[in-house]
Each structure stands twice: as C-alpha cells, then as structure tokens.
Q: What sequence folds into this?
C-alpha cells in the first residue's frame, strides 16, 4: 500500500517503526503585565432593581384609579388637559384652582368629586352601620388600610402606622405618606390645602362619619393621616401659616404680574 502524500505536511502516516514528525505549534504570547483580570459581570439588572425600589411604579389598577378620578374631576370643572396621565391631571387641578373662585368653592367642588367616586348608598351604609362600632375605631382602622392600598397612585409610597389619640389611646388608624406626589407635582400649598387636605377631611367626616386630621409637611413633602382624630380649627392649624413655596407656579405668575409685591404666605389659603 502506497503512503498517502500530503502537501508539505507528512510523507506518510506514521507506523510503529517510524518516528512522528511534529509540526511546530503557534503559541499565543502571554501578557506579562503582572495584573490579574477578574471576570466582568453585567450589573444592569442590579441597577434596575435599585431604581425600582427608589421610585414607585404605577400598576394597571393605579392607571384605572387615575382615569376614574380624572374623569370625575373633568366633569366638575368642565375642562380637560391634552396631556396624558398624571401631568394632565395636575393641569386640570390647576385649572380648578384658577377658576374656582373663593377657597370654600374650591373645597366644595373637590368634596363633590370625592363623593362622586362612590355609590351614595355605600357611603350612607358605612356611616350608619360601621362608623359607630367601637366608638369609630373599626371604621378608622378599615379606611386607613384601604387608603394605603388604593391611593398610592395619587400620593406615592405610603403605609399604615399607629397614631395617638387625644385621650391617650393608640390606634393603627394612621397612614404615613413618605413623599406626597400630589404636593411634589403641584408645588403649591394652596392646592394641597384647598383640593386635598380640607376636602378630604370634610369628606370622611360628613359622608363617612370618620374624623380625620391630615398633617402635611411642606419641608420634606411627607404627610400624616390620622383617622379618628378631629382636625383643629383653621385658626389653630399651623399649615395655614405656612409661607408660599418658592417653586409654586402660581406664585411665579403673581411675581411676574406684581413685581413690587413681596409674596410670603400663600394667598390661596
């Protein structure tokens, strides 16, 4: 059998009596930098996880709640913004503030919006049957939990906490809002008080039989809800003495119109 000739490689297949001719191997040179390289891992998922924890992300139900609330508000004011989502909602709120007239009229309009979100029979039955139980404790605890679950689309991250009542007892009927999105986006103390704080307190007291005190903090934008606690009269409520926020868009417009006027306290409270 004739040996198989290969072009410039082997003269024949090796046999037991023949020596193996090894081809020179090309060896990749090693880097002698003295530095060891650790494997690189993509950390995009870790970064995304941290971002998700630091910012509240609206879900499907949140969009539904926002749509219902905005529709009722548009019915009340008779105008809607072209902007979608939360930005459009805030434009409708600002429209209510600019055309609402007196503070009492703005508060009354906001209460009507809240009432329109519920069947009238549900509010009446709750006030009649649930609110009197255990001197209001059961009703206060219930609405605190419902508020914390269903209103994060409006206020941002919040949780139920324990509050102290004027008589010294403690109930788990508080809701603490870490940083109120409504206040942060509106940038206006007047909007907070006239379209949120006062009408919400009135709604729960008059239509559900539950006293409520809301304590917004205009320094860090947090807010404490105290279900089961009557609010102080306006002349004793510290929020009515708060100066106008520097970031308030309405205050900016007033400064432009009245350049010689020094704006301190919000004129809408």
A:
């Amino acid at each position: 059998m004739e040996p198989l000739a290969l072009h410039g490689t082997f003269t024949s297949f090796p046999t037991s009596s023949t020596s193996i001719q090894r081809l020179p191997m090309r060896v990749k040179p090693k880097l002698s930098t003295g530095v060891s390289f650790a494997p690189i891992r993509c950390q995009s998922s870790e970064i995304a996880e941290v971002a998700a924890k630091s910012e509240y992300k609206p879900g499907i139900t949140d969009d539904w709640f926002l749509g219902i609330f905005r529709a009722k508000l548009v019915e009340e004011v008779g105008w809607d913004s072209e902007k979608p989502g939360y930005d459009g909602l805030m434009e409708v709120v600002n429209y209510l503030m600019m055309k609402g007239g007196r503070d009492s009229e703005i508060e009354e309009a906001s209460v009507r919006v809240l009432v329109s979100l519920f069947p009238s029979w549900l509010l009446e039955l709750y006030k009649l049957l649930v609110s009197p139980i255990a001197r209001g404790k059961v009703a206060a605890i219930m609405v605190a939990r419902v508020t914390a679950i269903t209103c994060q689309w409006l206020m941002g991250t919040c949780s139920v906490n324990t509050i102290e009542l004027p008589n010294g007892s403690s109930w788990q009927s508080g809701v603490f809002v870490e940083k109120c999105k409504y206040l942060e986006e509106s940038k206006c103390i007047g909007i907070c008080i006239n379209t949120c704080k006062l009408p919400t307190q009135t709604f729960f007291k008059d239509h559900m039989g539950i006293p409520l005190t809301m304590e917004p903090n205009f320094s860090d934008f947090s807010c404490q809800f105290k279900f089961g606690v009557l609010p102080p009269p306006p002349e004793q409520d510290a929020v009515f003495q708060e100066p106008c926020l520097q970031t308030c868009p309405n205050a900016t417009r007033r400064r432009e119109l009245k350049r010689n006027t020094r704006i301190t306290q919000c004129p809408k409270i």
Q: What stands out?
A: Strands lie at 158-164, 170-177, 212-216, 223-227. Residues 189-208 form the longest helix (20 residues).
